[in-house]
Amino acid sequence: MALKLVSMSFQSQEVPCFGLPAMASFGSPRFFMTSTVPSANMKVENLRKKFMPHLKVQDQITHSMPPQKIEIFKSLDNWVENNILIHLKPVEKSWEPQDFLPDPTSDGFNEQVEELRERAKEIPDDYFVVLVGDMITEEALPTYQTMLNTLDGVRDETGASPTPWAIWTRAWTAEENRHGDLLNKYLYLSGRVDMRQIEKTIQYLIGSGMDMKAENNPYLAYIYTSFQERATFISHKNTAKIAKGHENIELARLCGFIAADEKRHETAYTKIVEKLFEIDPDETARAFADMMRKNITMPAQFMYDGQDENLFNHFSTVAQRLGVYTTKDYTDILEFLVDQWKVKELTGLSAGGRKAQEFVCQLPQRLRKLEVRAQLRAKEAPNVKFSWIYDRKLKL
Ligand SMILES: [Fe+2]
Ligand SMILES: [Fe+2]
């Protein structure tokens, strides 16, 4: 049964350039339960002020997947073992952050750090703001592992569960952990950014969590993760490209290696959804449409540094201007997934399934029109200061 619970959401009414405007809600009928106890609400309000002052309480839906569907995920155990775990890299063959950083035990450590800092001086502030935002997003990894472990039928029930789904989630987390770690250490050594402000932002972000609107439902969640892994692949690939343009080959290399991980993860998650389309096309088509109607919001949407209540929007506007991640990318990803999952070719759907199919297939065309507006908005944007670069101002 689906429950509607108290949740936190971003206070700003601005539309972030990463997420596109919300449309009418969609999906099968659900049952809601809303908290009505005033003292409980006051308690939440007080906690909110202390730990997540930029958030307000809204509604959230939980457990929307019919219980009988859990069996589908259990029946896929062998398939996950043979088809998904192969997309993980054995630890012994993985790169580690230390492979890209000066070795603190070597005699040449100080010189290597000095060289890294000299090369970092050639890169403009706006690039660093985007790299910091990307790093903070990666550093909120505890939230993402938590999210995956809210999912009915696939969660890691014990923290060391031997099911292939749980093995995937833990090993995926372990691979992802290297991303934030590497970017964090690089940024620390670069001497270009205010690490304390960045660390505060990470603390706030993990405290705030995220609202991916997956409703404990793996159909919805794996569509979200497919989208997100491709989004992070594009984003890290572009930070690599720009670093190369500034002739910073070491930075380009490390961003490129992170992008390659994201690509592997994208392959795994899109394969899961492909399988769901194969065995349960109706539910999967409706889940795809549902997620797209709700928007794929970025995992770091609740970003806050203790000062700027629109920090995420400001960061994403700079990313849009630099071409690291844009509204065009959002639509391109959607188009890619529609093709990848052969949504146009699906047959034998129910009326609801056909409606969902039609919606996702037509959506890219509608979103293209909004891209122009987002670009114009980026051109008109004012100067904004970022605490991550010692309150220096950037044109958005
Ligand atoms: Fe990552
Ligand atoms: Fe990833």
From TrEMBL:
Residues annotated as binding Fe cation 2: E176, E229, E262, H265
Catalytic activity: octadecanoyl-[ACP] + 2 reduced [2Fe-2S]-[ferredoxin] + O2 + 2 H(+) = (9Z)-octadecenoyl-[ACP] + 2 oxidized [2Fe-2S]-[ferredoxin] + 2 H2O
Quaternary structure, from the entry: Homodimer.
Subcellular localization, as worded in the UniProt entry: Plastid, Chloroplast
Listed name of the protein: stearoyl-[acyl-carrier-protein] 9-desaturase
Pfam families documented for this protein: FA_desaturase_2
Cofactor binding, note field: Binds 2 iron ions per subunit.
Entry's EC annotation: 1.14.19.2
PANTHER family: ACYL- ACYL-CARRIER-PROTEIN DESATURASE-RELATED, STEAROYL-[ACYL-CARRIER-PROTEIN] 9-DESATURASE 7, CHLOROPLASTIC
EC main group: oxidoreductase
Organism: Gossypium hirsutum (Upland cotton)
Recorded superkingdom: Eukaryota
UniProt cross-references to Gene3D superfamilies, sorted A to Z: Ribonucleotide Reductase, subunit A (1.10.620.20)
InterPro entries the record matches: Fatty_acid_desaturase-2, Ferritin-like_SF, RNR-like
Family as reported in the entry's similarity comment: Belongs to the fatty acid desaturase type 2 family.
Keywords: Chloroplast, Fatty acid biosynthesis, Fatty acid metabolism, Iron, Lipid biosynthesis, Lipid metabolism, Metal-binding, Oxidoreductase, Plastid, Transit peptide
A GO molecular function held by the record: stearoyl-[ACP] desaturase activity
One GO-annotated biological process of the protein: defense response
Amino acids binding Fe cation 1: E138, E176, H179, E262
Cofactor(s) this protein requires: Fe cation; Fe(2+)
Chief subcellular location: plastid
